[in-house]
Hints:
This protein starts with 6 loop residues before the first helix and ends with a helix. Helix 3 runs antiparallel to helix 4, helix 4 runs antiparallel to helix 6 and helix 14 packs across helix 16. It is mainly alpha-helical. Helices cover about 70% and strands about 5% of the residues. The strands form two sheets. The chain has a three-stranded antiparallel β-sheet with strand order 3-5-4. A hairpin with a 4-residue loop joins strand 4 and strand 5. It has 24 helices and five strands.
Amino acid sequence: MAEHDLTPRIAPNLDRHLVFPLMEFLQERQLYPDELILKCKIDLLNRTNMVDYAMDIHKSLYHTDDVPQGMIVDSIRRYVFEFIGLMDCFELEMVEMRAEVVARLKALEESAAPLVNFLQNPSAVQELRADKQYNLQMLNDRYQIGPDQIEALYQYAKFQFECGNYSGAADYLYQYRALCTNSERGLSALWGKLAAEILMQNWDIAHEELNRLKEIIDSKNFSSPMNQVQSRIWLMHWSLFIFFNNDNGRTQIIDLFNQDKYLNAIQTNAPHLIRYLATAFIVNKRRRPQFKDFIKLIQQEQHSYKDPITEFLTCVYVNYDFDGAQKKMWECQEVILNDPFLGKRVEEGNFTTVPLRDEFLENARLFIFETYCRIHQRIDMGVLAEKLNLNYEEAERWIVNLIRSSKLDAKIDSQLGTVIMEPNHPNVYEQLIDHTKALSGRTYKLVGQIREHAQTQAAR
């Protein structure tokens, strides 16, 4: 189902190194011809220093051991690259470029050597303090390390990243941020550190860097409000790698994406991110109080973005179209399997499973069942099995398990083959609690908006 592939929308909001895992997934799923993916990879590598990798891909693509001195990008590659939504292609001279990369790396290594040697000396590093100004003065007085060497460390770390040495880049960027006094450069280094940790799959460290970046983006005074919106959009795209590789990620993605500022950013320029928020809501039962507002968001944005996952929710909660929901549920399964973030595979012995798909289908059936039960008191088991995409025995066993686990207040009439729903009348105290439990959160948001407005007025 390449028609629902979001790579063309997601890729422009990622560092090009972060696009490679998406390309690997698409190649594995065979959503596009293998040749097309390999050409895209070469085009991605054009603006990096990963020359050896580019040469290997070129050999695989053209089935040759020779790499041309000047490889001109043809019209097909140019079309493919524009389709992915990245920068224009340019002529790649692989062999010559490799020599240039090695020479440049040696030059940067020599420039950064004084500071690198200092950082590799544990006794010397102990002299550093939390005060950056003191550190800069101490480095200059005792070790003759000044701003030029610190800048060289940044360039060296950046070059290491472009060469694919993410571990070295992460270490040097961390050290650079401890010495950097330029806020813009420090922010750039933090983005690089986050990308490196994601590519090394250090999810816990990456999550810490993500939180640091969020604090800076939310508190920083940007030259334009749209720049701040764009930074939030980038942050949400990068966060997908972390949240869908984290045990608590389904809750964390709701906590981030469902904030007013981030929802506004999604509605402004990234409505496709609704897919991931919708999936998180479906598989996360603890966020139901926020779910009603999210359904309204899906209705508002259905003209700018929709896919089988959002359409499934519309069928169940807006149109009460259970036949349509049944069809969309199976389409959702294909969307999940072909999505680089949702379709994560886990090896279990000789079998490969997609945990999120199984969890999604289980909760999707529950959504259909709960909504169907609200408008019916007595339900024919055969009809219900059809709505849930299960056979009669599976549906009966599934409902029995719900009743046993206290998720359903009902009983089964085996002779008539029906499910009888018990009337549920919430008392007035429960209704009062439901209406007021979100009051403190709304008050907190209102106070935050008033403070932000006051700070903006004061800055003017």
